[in-house]
Write a structure and sequence with these properties.
There is one protein chain. This protein is of the alpha/beta class. The chain folds into 2 domains: about 120 residues, Rhodanese-like domain (Oxidized Rhodanese, domain 1), CATH 3.40.250; about 150 residues, Oxidized Rhodanese, domain 1, CATH 3.40.250. Helix content is about 35%, strand content about 10%. The protein contains 15 helices and 10 strands. The strands form 2 sheets. It has a 5-stranded parallel sheet. α2 crosses α9 and α6 packs across α13. The N and C termini lie far apart (about 125 Å). The relative contact order is 0.16.
């Protein structure tokens, strides 16, 4: 009996020692999931429709030589200049369409996909690049901007503003070479379209952008260098060119790895004017159009680096493949009045 009692006592002790310990405390907080903003929905939509801005087709530029060689083919030319400029000299067969009328023209006046290429031209290639970006995002995959504009088609079409008069080196000595970090990630701009799908938001923003017009989109080098702190300056070019010398305070954003990527775009301040520049003003106009579509207050620098460091571009034209303007880029192609 004594042995049995000892056995039972041992069993009880063993069971007591095997009692599971108290469950560890768990954090019952659930990570807060922020609702998607209109910009999030817009970026999702643009990615779903092809992510043009991170493809090899971006930016969609075409040289005057290629345009001239293709005039007898299925090519349609749209001239965005003023009626006065158009009357003084334009490419034969070109249609003179103002920026705000472009969406209606594509919807009601032409059948865009009947043409192999639709080429947009303007005075120096800035407005045509801005417009081409918007049309490409709208799904018109055969639209191109003519590099250097009508000022390179024929010197007579440049009037008193030839490309040679737009190049300058006034600020070559004011460049810096240090690398500047991007701003911390913040919120996207607030879009107030009231729409709930990416497609609806996109269509509304396109209407707003074209209705707003092109005025104020382009800024000069003088505007920027006079008050560089007034802008969030984006250098949109290769790293070796950025390292060679850039606008004081400029942050380099990698071509093909910025637009449409939420984490990258959130580092662009929503509450500050954004100034984008490249070598010519062409690529930066594409970028400014995309950023404005997303609600940023974006501008493109007129004529790019050519307008403020042309001498340095010429010195390193071969080594860094600078797109430095030279007089041999002006063709003597025929035009009509």
């Amino acid at each position: 009996m004594k042995i049995l009692n000892l056995f039972l006592l041992a069993v009880v002790f063993s069971l007591a020692s095997c009692k599971p310990s108290a469950e560890p405390k768990t954090d019952t907080k659930v990570a807060e999931i922020k609702p998607k903003t209109e910009v999030d929905l817009l970026l999702d939509y643009l990615a779903e429709t092809g992510d043009y801005v991170n493809s090899r087709k971006f930016p969609s530029m075409i040289k005057p030589e290629t345009v001239f060689e293709g005039l007898d083919s299925s090519m349609y030319i749209i001239d965005l200049r003023s009626p006065e400029q158009f009357k003084k000299g334009h490419i034969k067969g070109a249609a003179n369409v103002q920026f705000s009328d472009i969406p209606s023209w594509f919807e009601n006046q032409i059948k865009p996909y009947e043409y192999d290429k639709i080429v947009l031209v303007c005075d120096h290639g800035q407005k045509s690049s801005y417009t081409t970006q918007l049309l490409r995002l709208m799904g018109y995959g055969n639209v191109y901007s003519m590099r250097w504009g009508m000022a390179a088609w024929n010197k007579d079409c440049a009037g008193d503003r030839p490309w040679s008069a737009l190049t300058g080196s006034e600020y070559s000595s004011k460049l810096e070479t240090k690398e500047n970090p991007a701003a911390a990630e913040g919120d996207f701009p607030v879009l107030n379209t009231g729409k709930t799908t990416g497609e609806e938001i996109f269509k509304e923003r396109i209407k707003e952008i074209f209705a707003k017009g092109f005025s104020g989109i382009m800024l000069s080098a003088e505007d920027v260098f006079a008050h560089p702190d007034s802008f969030y300056v984006i250098n949109y070019d290769r790293k070796d060119k950025y390292d060679f010398g850039h606008v004081p305070g400029a942050i380099r954003y990698k071509p093909g790895g910025t637009l449409g990527i939420a984490s990258e775009m959130r580092t662009i301040p929503a509450d500050k004017d954004v100034l984008v520049y490249c070598a010519t003003g062409h690529n930066s106009a594409f970028v400014a159009a995309f950023l404005n579509l997303c609600g940023y207050k974006a501008h493109s620098m007129k004529y790019g680096c050519n307008s403020f460091m042309h001498d340095k571009m010429m010195e390193e034209k071969t080594r860094l493949s600078w797109e430095a303007f030279t007089e041999d880029m002006v063709m003597g192609y025929p035009y009509v009045k």
